[in-house]
Each structure stands twice: as structure tokens, then as C-alpha cells.
Amino acid sequence: KKEMLKVEGLKQYFPIKGGLMGRTINHVKAVDDISFTIYEGETVSIVGESGCGKSTTGRSILRLEEPTDGSVVFNGEELTTLSKREMRKHRKDLQIIFQDPYASINPRQTVADVLDEAMTIQKILPAKQRRKRIIELLETVGLNEYQADRYPHEFSGGQRQRIGIARALSVNPKLIICDEAVSALDVSIQAQVLNLLEELQEQYQLTYLFISHDLGVVRHISDRVIVMYLGKIVEIGDKHSIFENAKHPYTKALLSAIPVPDPTREKKHIVLTGDVPSPIDPPAGCRFHTRCPFAQDICKKETPVLGTYAAMADGHEAACHFVEEIESGTLQAKEFEE
Ligand code: SF4
Ligand code: MG
């Protein structure tokens, strides 16, 4: 398996200014020392509640926000030390699709203009050949040539997301980061766009980093899943390990919140209480301890690291001090007081 993206020790701290002198008085630790690898042709999802750092991770990889620390190796090349100019060249290989493509599409440009501009910037094809390519791209994403000269507002949300996908594809990327790319769409349209992304992956050997808060979507599209909480990875594994054999109490809690497809299968509910604490002063030790029904004293002091335990598949890791005790039932969930 070829490594497409290798993220190591990535940190993204945003300074908080304050006081009379406008000094940096603190930091929002949006992403705090995360590492993972994505292999060619796979779909890896990052899932977690809002504020967990998943979108920031995507933006930091692309250097839309300059990472505070860490390494991002894409296709064998370190991105964090490239000049802005060299980085722009790599944007051809590394595309991002956002939740609302309309926001990033100029309303006065026709669809053809949008695609033409993307190809012009990256010097894809001579001008004369682009029109033909634009029609091909539109057909590839399920639109047609008659729609090429229309304006974005003439399209539905699902169609606009198809235009966004066509724009990303127009520069022949290797990796596409999908940041809540289907979150604004109705469920039936979501499924269509997800199916399209899967077809395109086959056709063009694409690799996806899929960022979503929606576990149903993540279950549909992913090969592997990364669960983030307050800037840290708490669990990582293949889709089945995460959905069928989750070990981290936070992952279990997230999964408790979605309906069970098979009602005959019993499910232990862990109900999440309280809000996600602030990433400015995240809880010491395990960041989940303020909401974890299994938390012990050590959880408040020592930060658990990702590790593999008995009955966990290859590549399945969780960051919790008590994986085995929770699994065997020797550590029982506490009832939280209201
Ligand atoms: Fe809960 Fe402690 Fe495990 Fe954190 S380390 S998830 S607080 S049991
Ligand atoms: Mg987000």
C-alpha cells in the first residue's frame, strides 16, 4: 500500500489576543498533536462533534491555516516547508470540497466559467480544448452540456455540489478532502452524491479524506475512521472495528446516538451529558474525563495514548486507560448526576 498522506504531530493553535497591548494571552488548541496515514485509493473519515478539530485538520493539511507544528507528507513530499508558490502547484493534486459550494462559486460566473477558471489557474489543457473537457466533466458528475452556460443559482443544492465536484476533478487531483460535503443536502440527495463520489474514486483512483459529523454518512463512505475529541484522536480503525467493535467510551457514546439498523441486536447506551469543554483550556489528562461515565482519578492526570488491546483488529487503536476493564465489565459506568 502506498502512503498518500502522512500526518505526524500536527498541531494547530490559534492565538487569543487580549489585554492592553493585544498580546497573545492564550491559545485555542484546535488540533493538538495528531498523527495518521492515508493510503492510496482509500477513504478515511474524520468524525466528531463540532469543535473537535476535524475541519481544522483538513484546512491545516492544505495550509489554508499554517500548522503550528508537525509534518504533512503528501505523495512523498513535505508540504509544511514549501513556499506559498510551490504549495499552490500542489493544490492541483490536493483539492477540497466544502459544505456549500455556492459560497465558493462566483454567482456571476457560469458553470463553464467556473471550470474553465480552475483549469486555467492550474494550466490544465490549452484554452481551445477546455470546452470539450468541461462538457465531459459535467457528464461525469451527472450534469449535461446544456447546463454549462447556466449560473450557479439556477441549480439545486445537490447539483451545485456536483458542480463543486466537477471543479475539483477538473485539475486531476489525487486526494480530495471533503469537508461536510454532503451535510447540507437532503438524505436522498446525500446518497446520490456519496454514490457519485464512490464511482469517481474507482474511475480516477482517488483518495478521500472525508470530514463529517454525520455517522450515517461516514458509515456509508469510509474504509477507515478517525474519531476526534477536543483536538485529539481518541480512536482509529477500519469501518467495521469502529462501528461494530468501538472501544473508546466517546466513540460508543457517539454511536449510541444513532438508531440501530438491526433492532434484534442489543446495544448498550452511553448517553453524552454536558457540552464539549473549551479547547482553550482543555481538561487535563484524558480530555473526555469531564463527560466520561467510566472516568477514574488517573484519567484527570494522565493523558491516554492510542494503543491496541486484546480483541482489537490490526490498525484499530483507542486512547483510553481502561479499554480492557470496560470491555470485561470490571469497570462499570457511573451514573451522572443531573
Ligand atoms: Fe474515560 Fe478515563 Fe478512558 Fe478517558 S481514559 S475515556 S476518562 S475511562
Ligand atoms: Mg467542521
UniProtKB/TrEMBL annotation:
TM region(s), chain numbering: none
Please report a single Pfam family linked to this protein: oligo_HPY
Please report the stretch or stretches of sequence annotated as the ABC transporter domain. 5-255
Q: Which Gene3D superfamilies match?
A: P-loop containing nucleotide triphosphate hydrolases
Q: Name one GO molecular function term.
A: ATP binding
Keywords carried by this UniProt record: ATP-binding, Nucleotide-binding, Transport
Q: Kindly give the CDD domains that the UniProt entry links to this protein.
A: ABC_NikE_OppD_transporters (cd03257)
Record family assignment: Belongs to the ABC transporter superfamily.
Known NCBIfam families for this protein?
A: oligo_HPY, PRK11308.1
The protein in question is named Dipeptide ABC transporter ATP-binding protein
